[in-house]
């Protein structure tokens, strides 16, 4: 069948689909990445499953060819709203809108609001998405569209930010409630430094102008963890949930939310924002500015006070803002009895007490310079604990760096035995699910004797880099000493990572040998007894154990289990991964 014959067939199919309303709304979850909670859904349309017009791309391109774009979009909008109401879905509904259709004579304003009223859907539940991928005209129709929906009371999102100039221009001029970063910049963001810088910059801009960023196309856990570190707070993508007619979140948020540290652990407290807490007084939502001034006078050490609603901080009040207001002529008389919310700063830096100091430092340094001296609010499970300051943060981080440097291995600078043991003991106390992988190079001593200590040291450093690069994220890499390393895995893909490490080691190790030794498959060297013995090309052994935190009391038992697993791995030829079934020490 030729192409000219195919297009009319599609047109006919589209007419029939519209007439019979054979279009099926799908909903993709949009997730709050800070709490692991559902924020809402984006409505996406699909044709019949076995139809040529199943995908929205073909549906709308065909509609444009035959002049049915407005009719198709309005039908999709109505069906999506009806399905949203029928399913009683929670949260917000993000509706895609073609801004250019507002200028057509057939478009009737207020139609969406009428449908919402008839379906008993609150207007503030709807977010209008306007994409810069739509064919906007050159006369400001996109600006008109956003203003139109804002006047009606809808929240507005600019979709596919980053695919063109218009998205950034709209953002700067209209400050939409949400901006969506195009999936192109999200794919492999965990491996692409340019994309990371782009996302980080967008998140910083959003923080400054009061917009919320939604990262689209999140497909892997590693991408999600990286995006959270860059400041992303809302996400959407296959990893979080696919578009379906009966939507649900696919991923368990426990896999990527910050893990709750067990209270009372000395080690945990020393490395989290909990050590920064000063139990400062707080204000309620309806307190007056005169009372606020009194609190500041009675607490001269604090430059900010938190404002709470139901025990949760909603912002801060700055001493400097209050003084500036009262310093004007008649300022105190005019404002003393006004509510404190008049000078409320909703862009306050609010941090959970179990957030690591490293994460706190990263978050603060990404803020505008004006916020670096204004302190931060610290919460526990969302409830107010107190305030902190940057000076204390810098002091604690310096102490941690000195402590870590004291116990780091001098060759690889990786944590040594003391931090390794502390990490394992902490996980046992928290009854966490984790695995310990013990890595050891086979025949390293003869290689070191033959090729020299410089090359041997470089090989150990290379192995440290291999382990660090492959065990990123929530995992912990340590250097016991010599050619012995451990990785404490908390991620579910530990086996794939171990296998990848062994494979990469086998590839890079060949660069350390001369062509002659590679050709013969190894080296001749003196054994411990002085005899000349042939040693094959170096390989890597890995023994993995899965300790039972209810039966292992301390790192001593875990270390013994790991050493036995490594011993079993070294009995095999070549690089080998041995996974032990034992989860506790045998009682003699």
Please identify the structural class as seen in this structure: alpha/beta
Mean pLDDT: 84
Total number of helical segments? 20
Helical fraction equals 25-40%
- Strand-residue proportion: 15-25%
Number of strands: 21
Basic shape = globular
Largest sheet: 8 strands, mixed, barrel
Physical arrangement of strands within the biggest beta sheet = 1-2-3-4-5-6-7-8
**CA radius of gyration:** 30 Å
Q: Enumerate the spans where pLDDT stays under 50 for 5 or more consecutive residues.
A: 1-7, 133-141, 259-269
What is the CA–CA distance across the termini? 79 Å
Domain EAL: 7-257
Domain CBS: 276-334
Domain GGDEF: 432-582
Protein name: EAL domain-containing protein
Describe the structure.
The chain has 588 residues and is α/β, with parallel strands linked by helices. Helices cover 40% and strands 20% of the residues. It is built from 20 helices and 21 strands. An eight-stranded mixed barrel has the order 1-2-3-4-5-6-7-8, surrounded by four helices. The chain has a five-stranded mixed beta sheet with strand order 16-17-15-20-21, with helices on both faces. Strands 9-10-11 form a three-stranded mixed beta sheet. It is globular, with a radius of gyration of 30 Å. Residues 1-7, 133-141 and 259-269 have low confidence and may be disordered. Residues 7-257 form the EAL domain. Keywords: CBS domain. Residues 432-582 form the GGDEF domain. InterPro entries: CBS_dom, CBS_dom_sf, Cyclic-di-GMP_PDE-like, EAL_dom, EAL_sf, GGDEF_dom, Nucleotide_cyclase, Rev_trsase/Diguanyl_cyclase. Pfam families: CBS, EAL, GGDEF.
């Amino acid at each position: 069948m030729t192409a000219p014959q195919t297009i009319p067939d599609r047109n006919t199919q589209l007419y029939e689909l519209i007439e019979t309303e054979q279009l099926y709304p799908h909903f993709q979850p949009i997730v709050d990445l800070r709490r692991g909670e559902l924020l809402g859904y984006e409505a996406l349309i699909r044709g019949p499953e076995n139809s040529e017009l199943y995908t929205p791309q073909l549906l709308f391109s065909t509609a444009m060819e035959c002049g049915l774009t407005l009719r198709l979009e309005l039908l999709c909008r109505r069906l999506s709203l009806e399905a949203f109401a029928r399913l009683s879905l929670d949260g917000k509904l993000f509706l895609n809108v073609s801004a250019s259709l507002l200028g057509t004579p057939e478009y009737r304003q207020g139609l969406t609001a009428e449908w919402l009223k008839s379906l008993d859907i609150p207007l503030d539940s709807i977010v209008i998405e306007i994409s810069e991928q739509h064919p906007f005209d050159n006369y400001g129709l996109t600006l008109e569209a956003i203003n139109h929906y804002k006047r009606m009371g809808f929240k507005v999102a600019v979709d596919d930010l980053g695919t063109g100039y218009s998205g950034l221009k709209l953002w700067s001029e209209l400050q939409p409630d949400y901006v969506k970063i195009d999936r192109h910049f999200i794919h492999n963001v965990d491996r692409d430094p340019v994309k990371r810088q782009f996302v980080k910059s967008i998140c910083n801009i959003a923080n400054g102008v009061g917009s919320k960023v939604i990262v689209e196309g999140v497909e892997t856990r590693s991408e999600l963890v990286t995006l959270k570190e860059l400041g992303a707070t809302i996400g959407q993508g296959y990893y979080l949930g696919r578009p379906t007619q009966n939507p649900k979140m696919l991923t368990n948020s426990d896999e990527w939310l910050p893990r709750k540290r067990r209270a009372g652990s000395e080690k945990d407290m020393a490395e989290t924002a909990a050590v920064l807490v000063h139990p400062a007084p707080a204000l309620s939502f309806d307190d007056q500015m005169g009372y606020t001034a009194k609190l500041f006078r009675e607490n001269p050490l604090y430059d900010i006070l938190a404002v709470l609603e139901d025990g949760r901080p909603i912002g801060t009040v700055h001493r400097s803002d209050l003084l500036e207001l009262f310093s004007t002529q008649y300022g105190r008389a005019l404002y003393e009895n006004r509510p404190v919310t008049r000078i409320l700063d909703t862009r306050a830096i609010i941090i959970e007490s179990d957030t690591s100091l490293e994460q706190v430092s990263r978050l603060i340094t990404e803020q505008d310079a004006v916020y670096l001296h204004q302190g931060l609010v610290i919460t526990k499970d969302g409830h107010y604990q107190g305030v902190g300051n940057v000076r204390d943060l810098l002091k604690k981080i310096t102490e941690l760096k000195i402590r870590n440097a004291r116990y780091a291995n001098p060759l690889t600078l990786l944590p040594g035995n003391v931090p390794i043991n502390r990490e394992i003991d902490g996980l046992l106390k928290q009854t966490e699910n984790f695995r310990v992988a013990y890595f050891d190079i086979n025949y390293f001593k003869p290689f070191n004797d033959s090729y020299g200590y410089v090359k041997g040291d470089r090989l150990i450093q290379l192995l440290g880099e291999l382990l660090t690069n492959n065990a990123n994220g929530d995992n912990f890499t340590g250097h016991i000493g010599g050619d012995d390393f451990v990785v404490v895995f908390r991620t579910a893909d530990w086996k794939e990572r171990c296998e990848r490490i062994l494979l990469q080691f086998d590839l890079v190790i060949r660069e350390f040998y001369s062509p002659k030794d590679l050709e013969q498959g190894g080296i001749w060297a003196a054994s411990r007894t002085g005899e000349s013995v042939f040693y094959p090309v170096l390989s890597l052994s890995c023994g993995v154990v899965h300790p039972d935190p209810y039966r292992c009391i301390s790192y001593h038992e875990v270390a013994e289990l790991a050493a036995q697993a490594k011993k079993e791995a070294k009995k095999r030829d070549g690089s080998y991964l041995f996974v032990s079934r034992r989860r506790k020490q045998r009682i003699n």
